[in-house]
Amino acid sequence: MPLDLVVNVTIAGVLTGMVYGLMALGLSVIFGVVRVVNFAHGEMMTIAMYAAVSLFAAFQLDPFLAAIPVAAGFFVLGYLLQAGLINPFITRPEHSQFMLMVAVAIIMVNGMLIAFGPDARNVQIAYQLESWEIGKILLDKPRVYAALMAAATSAALFLFFKLSLTGKAIRACADNHLGALVVGLNVKHLYALTFGLGAACVAVAGCMMILFLDVTPSLGPSYTLLAFIIVIVGGLGSLTGALLGGVLIGLSEALAGLFIQPSAKSMFCYGLLILVLLFRPQGLLGKKS
Amino acid sequence: MNRRDFNKAAAAVAAATALSPLNRAFAQAQKLKVGVLLPRSGFQGLIGQSCQKGADLAPGVIKQMLGVDIELMSADTETNVDTARTRAERLIQEGANVLVGPFDSGAALAIAQVAEQRGVPFVVNIAAAPQLTEQGYKYVFRNFPTAIDLTVNGLALIGDLFRATNVAPRTAVFMHVNDTFGQAMQKGIGATLPRLTQLPFKIVDTIAYDPAAKDLTVEVSKAKAANADFLLLVCRLNDAIILRREMVKQRWFPMGVVSPGSPGMYEEQFSKALGPIANYCISNAPWYNPKTNMTKVVKAAFDKANPREKFVFHGTNVVYTYESILIAADAFKRAKSTDPKALTEAIRQTNITDRTVLGGPLKFNAKGQVEGNLSACTQNLNGEPRVVLPESAAEAKPVFPVPDYKKA
Amino acid sequence: MKQKVLLLVLFAVLLIFPKVVNPYLLSVGTLILYLAYTGQAWNVMMGFAGQLSLGHSLYVGVGAYAAAAIFVHYGIGPWAGVWLAIAVCVAIGAAIGFLAFRFGISGVYFALLTIAFAEFTRIGFDHLNWTGGSGGLFLKVAQRDQIDLANFRGPPEMYYYSILILVFAALVLCNYLLKSKAGYYWQAIRENEEAAQALGINTFRWKMLAVVISSAMTAVSGVFFAFYYNNLFPEQIFHISRSIEIILAPIIGGVGTLFGPILGAVVLTVLSDSITELLAYFGWEIPGIKQVFYGIVLLLVIMFLPHGIWPPLARKLGLAK
Asked: What is the DSSP string of B21-32?
């Protein structure tokens, strides 16, 4: 096996993994704080991708720039979704929460089918097919940009949670729900804020994803699953954990695909999930609860 | 109505009936009710809707060409086996004389069992699983090549392609989706390629990939590292798009991308999503014969009903679905009744020479399978798939190796 | 007493059902009963022992493939095959249960574990050539007019009655379980596992029992599926949408109740068909719109009837204790 092949695949795996991490970031934030099983996560990302496509079609807006209005819009929608629909379900049993989000997901997927039709949509930008060549190493431009965006977004979130008052309040809610209530925090509002933030992350992820993936209405479910796996592997509530989990999954899939069988590479992320659940359920970077 | 009027009416009816016994028999069964089962929603929604266009234009064309009245009863299988089964029962309940559809092998098998149970003929429009016509069913007919036929035809065409362009590539790397279709193709190629000694190339590596994979970097890297002359690809639409993009990003420019028989590269989305890099990809697929009279009529009807669509992208789905209804109508015309047994026997005796599909006459063998449906070698030229082989049906000349070919 | 009378009436209605309806409604009825039975099997694990399994398609698939594979390769009929199916599924269920409970995995994590196993198996079967890989496994279908019980072949009525018997057997079994010691222990574990442990209940053992019973029952459902549809594809039978389909009926009907899954299956199927009919009547044949309405109804039921339809209905009928 030629060395440059292994190196290229490894780099590609890491870059792809960072994009996965960006996608899972939103879920980590939501799941880590509100503890709601958002099974419509992938569908939300799909809607963000359609938003990016529409903005591109109408205004020729580069998805990087489109990420700003889309994220803002998703923040508002996420806030409303949590405050309006999901809040009463926090105390309900898990299967109820799950079914709620499944119903929401069904409505979203078919709503998109009606609105956009079954055709795959995409954006067509100059740098989409470009790559940097360094000797025998090939660096995929869109993926590098997306990976940088992932790093930037998680850095921004990290700073928010660490430094801002609201961020600290949200972390307090996550650590101790009852304690937060006792101290007088408006937990409902903070939860909704968190969901909004998570949704905004998903929006950014969607705008990045459209650079190398065509969007169809049924794109969501596989990404929902992947996001959960990454969040659990990386560690609940840990932003770096989400990125790390993503990179781990991306890398293991790439190497498994290279050395074993590409069509079975997804088995590895499930295998990894099972191992983590058994031996380190708080995830690699999570805190033991 | 009073007694006198009633008597007059009764007398008139009796007279009319007495005068034309044939007309009366035909009058009882003047219309053929065709139940159309297709996946219009769900995962296969896009293709199902494409097939539906072929079904929708059939009554008009068939009335014009055969003088037969067809009433369509359409049902959505929702890409779900349970729904396919209950919808089939429902259509039969509502009086469908014959069923056609359903694009998917799994759904076809479910509907086939219903058809056998109820003794209603079922004409499969598109489904490649060989087992469909190996079960000994008496009411099931298929007018579409099996996966084995597709493989044999597809590989033969590749040989023709190399002869026509005077190129003799020695190695190929074979990539295929790991689903029902891809695995059948892989087995088929494994079995037939060694026997086809006139094909000069060897497969140096086989890479199977997950049809749901959104990232094919590893697969393409592996394929590129095989250093083969050309890429033999069995794919579906979404993965074909991802693959082609990845090839360009990884700067892999083989002699060509050739599919021995799979959807994907000739579809509209492929050209739309990829623009110029979609050009010159070659797909050997079941296709329509652009030169026959009936094709021209069907195309005209399609263009009229779908002014914003291009026939060339829906051709295969449309003509195979159209022909499944044509078979029903033709049998009805000969049987002169909607009795299911008579219809089934008439279908068995089908012999249609004026066709849309590329191939020999439409005849069923003892298992209910049509032999002789051919694939065409199509190449994306200027954003549309054009038939380049066989020469008798060609619309353009094949280009191989492709212009951006770079020796590894 | 009222409950027993209602039950007998229901049984009688279901018995004569095939004789009075057309084949289309019979196929719908068979589907409803299949969903009801499978939902009831899942209910044992969730409703009784409180373990949320989102990968139940695993047992349906493995059960189906086990019985179908030995039928196709060795000609062994389903009456023997079902025991193999049950054995394999019990082994898998026990393994998952052991791993989960020994390592203290519960709630959402347990659910995700079950999904992981189902997906892992799906991809695994895609590559398993002995069962046809992703190309699918096809059972030979013989003439369907005579009843060939040994090979479980026959007219649709036979399938209907078979699944009806299964549904009632499940009801009887679940009723017995609920009233037995197991039922009480399960309730205790469901309400508060730590307290139950403090009381000296061996929670591990009783949770395992629920998992094992549930997987065994689901295996039988898989065998029925294999011999009714006669073709199996890993992509379809192990898919997460199938798992979701299995749990819809019990959740809508009422988790943990006896009649919830059956009621849920009826409501969902009737709802699905009614929406299709209604939309066809209004001419709104837009692909996807049916699922949107379906999703909205699901949403409303989840929001306003959190314990399912059966509990309030039972209260109205004066059947609740």
From this structure: HHHHHHHHT-EE
Phi, psi (degrees; rounded to nearest 5) at B32: -100, 125
B81 has a chain C CB within 8 A of its CB: yes
Report domain extents, chain C.
Answer: 2-316
Q: Are C96 and C114 in contact (CB under 8 A)?
A: yes
Question: For residue A18, is it left (φ>0), alpha (ψ between -120 and 50) or beta?
Answer: alpha
Give residue C263's identity as a one-letter amino acid code.
L
Q: Is the C-alpha dihedral spanning B360, B361, B366, B370 positive or negative? A: positive
User: Are the beta carbons of C298 and C252 closer than 8 angstroms?
Assistant: yes
Tell me how far apart the alpha carbons of residues A94 and A103 are, in angstroms, rounded to a whole number.
14
ipTM computed for the complex:
0.83
Buried b (16+ CB within 10 A) or exposed e, C52-88: bbbbbbbbbbbbbbbbbbbbbeeeebbeebbebbbeb
Span C78-127, pLDDT tens digits:
889 999 999 999 999 999 998 888 887 877 788 888 988 998 999 889 88
Q: For chain A, which residues lie within 8 Å of any Cβ of chain B, measuring from their own Cβ?
A: 1-2, 5, 8-9, 12-13, 16, 110, 113, 118-120, 122, 124, 128-131, 133, 138, 140, 212-214, 216, 218, 222, 253-254, 257-258, 261-266
Our CA dihedral for C236, C237, C240, C246, rounded to 10 degrees, sits at 130
In chain A, residues with a C-beta closer than 8 Å to the C-beta of B221 are: 5, 8-9, 12, 258
Tell me whether residues A94 and C113 touch, CB distance under 8 A.
no
The whole model's pTM is what? 0.85
* Residue closest to A43 by CA, chosen among A223, A196, A208: A223
Q: Could you tell me if B367 and B133 are in contact, meaning their C-beta atoms sit under 8 angstroms apart? A: yes
- Set of chain A residues whose Cβ sits within 8 Å of the Cβ of C241: 221
Give the length of chain C.
Answer: 321
Closest residue in chain B to residue C123, using alpha carbons only: B210
Burial call B351-368: b when 16+ CB within 10 Å, e when fewer: ebeebbbbbeebbbeeeb
Task: Supply the CATH classification number for the domain B28-145+290-374.
Answer: 3.40.50.2300
- The larger pLDDT score, comparing residue B231 to residue B17, is at B231
Enter the CATH code of domain B148-286+376-393: 3.40.50.2300
CA dihedral sign, ordered B174, B178, B184, B190: positive
CA distance A36 to A194: 11
> Residue C18 has which token pair?
């095939």
The position carrying tokens 């190399």 is B162
Cβ distance of B41 and A218 shorter than 8 Å:
no
Is domain C2-316 given the CATH code 1.20.140 in the classification?
no
Q: Measured between alpha carbons, how far is B85 from B155 in angstroms, rounded to an integer?
A: 35
Mean pLDDT across C255-260 = 84
Task: Tell the burial category of C99 from Cβ atoms under 10 Å away from its Cβ (0-12, 13-18, 19+).
Answer: middle
| Distance (Å, whole) CA A67 – CA A85 | 25
For chain B, the domains span: 28-145+290-374, 148-286+376-393
**Cα of B313 to nearest chain A Cα, Å:** 13
Residue A103 clears pLDDT 50, i.e. is over it = yes
